[in-house]
Amino acid sequence: MKKIRYIVMMALGVCAILTGCQELDEAYSNIPIVQTGDATDITATSATLTATVSGNSADGGLIFLISTSEDMSDAYESENVQLRNLTSGTTYYYIAIMRSSDEKHEVRGEMKSFTTLNILTIASMTYTDWDGTIKKLPQSYKVGMTLQDSDGKLYHNQKISNNGTSWSFSTEYAAGRITNIASYWPYTNKDYANDGWGGINVDTYDSYATTDYLVGGITKTENNGSKVNINLKHATPRVIFHFSVAEDHTIIKGFITRLNIGCGDKVLPIAGFLDLESAFITGHTFEPYQNDSSIELNKGEVSDYTFYPLPTYSAGSVTLSLHGSAGINYQFDVQKEMEIDWKAGQTYEYEILLEESSITVTNVTVEDWTNNEGGDITVND
Prior knowledge:
30 strands, Immunoglobulin-like, nine-stranded mixed β-sheet, mainly beta
């Protein structure tokens, strides 16, 4: 670090050095006046310094003395007005200096300061399970996020991942610049729409409704908060079929090899678009839902099958069809018409009795999940 030189100028001395015959006020007018300006474009890791120099400055250059201590004990010099690689959430003190080209003289402005913004960090990443308990999101999950800054710019489909100790953004964001946040699981780097707040395509084609889509609504950040607490809610309903075999049925052990839910008139969508602004699934595609996985049946036991279909477009009738086998020569095809109205965040349980030539729905339970509404992203210091 260069030794800082101070000018000690007395009026008579300046007059003698300059000409020996100039008037005092003429000599004094050749000394530059330096005014330290305010810092601008402050982010978490950068800032731009400003200064005003008036008077004679032809034989000198402008530098800045910068420190994180008010007594300038750790000061360093910079000829660049654009500071980079600063520490977030830190106060910096600075002085503008006009130094002569021979480095023998300098004139200082006043000391000023600025504080870099905090980095937006994830304090917690949780979801509310179907039983109402709040749980930590599994480390293996990858969460997608859209953020909006104070200029209205949207940063789409940013991935949040866990490094084993904490969750973090793929890019650093200054907390004071982010005004709105939305998030979802599972993260996808394809089929993502950048229109508006953006969103993802959801469907049951490939996953056979085994994906419990989670979403966090938009919440405006306040008070330059830097710690984000994210709690995701369910964007789909949960449906549980409890299968059992009638006592007089000839089946002792069998399998449901195909489960089909025939859709009525715009009742059961199987594909749509999860809009991050509204947290609703829109733009539905309507076709029968089908699952070809094997569901084991044992007389005297209950076999559960759980899936997460898209919310119904409207209340209406669907047809549940089962195809299965028991042994080599016995196969069955049975069906039952059901009235459904499946809403996001609610659990629907059906006790289904398989008889010789029909299905009987003996009981239907609808469980409201009261924690599926309201804000679920908070930001604080």
